[in-house]
Automatic annotation (TrEMBL):
UniProt-recorded Gene Ontology molecular function terms: NAD+ binding; prephenate dehydrogenase (NAD+) activity; prephenate dehydrogenase (NADP+) activity
Similarity remark: Belongs to the prephenate/arogenate dehydrogenase family.
Taxonomic lineage from the root: Bacteria, Pseudomonadati, Pseudomonadota, Alphaproteobacteria, Rhodobacterales
Transmembrane segments: none
Domain of life: Bacteria
Pathway note: Amino-acid biosynthesis; L-tyrosine biosynthesis; (4-hydroxyphenyl)pyruvate from prephenate (NAD(+) route): step 1/1
Keywords, sorted A to Z: Amino-acid biosynthesis, Aromatic amino acid biosynthesis, NAD, Oxidoreductase, Tyrosine biosynthesis
GO BP annotation list: tyrosine biosynthetic process
Reactions catalysed: prephenate + NAD(+) = 3-(4-hydroxyphenyl)pyruvate + CO2 + NADH
Name listed for the protein in its UniProt record: prephenate dehydrogenase
Keyword Amino-acid biosynthesis: yes
Gene3D superfamilies: 6-phosphogluconate dehydrogenase C-terminal like domain (1.10.3660.10), NAD(P)-binding Rossmann-like Domain (3.40.50.720)
InterPro entries, A to Z: 6-PGluconate_DH-like_C_sf, NAD(P)-bd_dom_sf, PDH_C, PDH_N, Preph/Arog_dehydrog, Prephen_DH
EC number(s) from the headed UniProt entry: 1.3.1.12
Length: 306
């Protein structure tokens, strides 16, 4: 693989930035990778393990001369970081991000991006419940989607180069409109995470069931919930605060359906339950028949990421 950007600056050195650094290194996609994080502790760990080529103290310093700048901090912190780096960006550079919500990031970052700098938001659909500079791994993006959300009129060459980077890091890339992205992610990721957080909270609340019993007798379902519910609290707080409308929309529909099923259970209407479950099973079969997924355990995925 050939070098796509002479210098890449990673702002934030957690799971996603760390995995990007390792994936870029795996395929030799960057001439130099410079990184920074908010705390001296994270910067020290990153330097100690050699996560990037050069660790610097500030975001302003990190972006100097960088051809690609990736904001890999919680969604709620993107605006402040963008304001800090704006005066130091190299003309012609590309600024991107990896935030889990796109409209809020565009609104927070967009106004700071100077003329002559390309802003191409992105979101890799890959992660684990781990965070911090030691949590990244080069394979995180392999066979995962990365959604690019370029504004209308974005420079096609800059978009193509970022697409090439994500593809070379192992991902499949598609472009999507920001609002649609936020709705799709509310359905596929954000609300499911909220349900997992709630379910684990409920289980903990039922003190009759000790922790060991919950884990000992749980099938994969609940154990998967506990894993998801161990995800970073800052990141997920920001996701819900910034994807408020889509999350509340989907959550409203979810609770309506839940109430309907609750009522069917209470009133003993087995036919309603049976029909509902038959319908959802048909949806799953339809997905497999359409070649969008496989019947294999764990969706036929290679191990490691969630
Ligand atoms: P992470 O491992 O917790 O790392 C976050 C990084 O951001 C750390 O280096 C942290 O610095 C820095 N940071 C935190 N708060 C900050 C602030 N207020 N100002 C400046 N820097 C700050 O997080 P991550 O999982 O890599 O997530 C980064 C981004 O990727 C988020 O926007 C998230 O929505 C998105 N994302 C996450 C996943 C996932 O599954 N984890 C998947 C796709 C996208 P310190 O260590 O010094 O505190």
């Amino acid at each position: 693989m050939s070098v796509l950007y002479d210098r890449v600056a990673l702002i934030g050195l957690g799971l996603i930035a760390g995995s990007m650094a390792l994936a870029m290194r795996r395929a030799q996609l960057a001439g130099e990778i410079v990184g920074t994080a908010r705390s001296a502790e994270t910067r020290a760990v990153a330097a100690e393990i050699g996560l990037v080529d050069r660790v610097v103290d500030t975001a302003a310093e990190a972006v100097q001369g960088a051809d690609l700048v990736v904001l890999a901090v919680p969604v709620g912190a993107m605006g402040a970081v963008a304001a800090e780096i704006a005066p130091h960006l190299k003309p012609g550079a590309t600024v991107s991000d990896v935030g889990s919500v796109k409209r809020a990031v565009i609104d927070a970052v967009g106004p700071h991006v100077p003329e002559g700098v390309h802003f191409i938001p992105a979101h890799p659909l890959a992660g684990t419940e781990h965070s911090g500079p030691r949590s990244g791994f080069a394979e995180l993006f392999d066979n995962r989607w990365c959604l690019l959300v370029p504004a209308e009129g974005s420079d096609p060459k800059a978009v193509d180069r970022l697409r090439a980077l994500w593809e070379a890091m192992g991902a499949s890339v598609e472009e999507m409109d920001a609002d649609h992205h936020d709705l799709v992610l509310a359905v596929t990721s954000h609300v499911p995470h909220l349900i997992a957080y709630t379910m684990v909270g409920v289980a903990d609340d039922l003190r009759r069931v000790t922790d060991s019993e919950v884990i000992k007798y749980s099938a994969a379902g609940f154990r998967d919930f506990t894993r998801i519910a161990a995800s970073d609290p800052t990141m997920w707080r920001d996701v819900f605060l910034t994807n408020k409308d889509a999350t509340l929309d989907i959550l409203g529909r979810f609770t309506e359906e839940l109430f309907a099923l609750q009522r069917a259970i209470r009133t003993g209407q087995g036919d309603i339950l049976f029909d509902y479950f038959t319908h959802t099973r048909a949806i799953r079969r339809g997905i497999i028949q359409a070649g969008q997924d496989t019947d294999a355990p764990d969706f036929g995925r290679a191990k490691k990421a969630n």
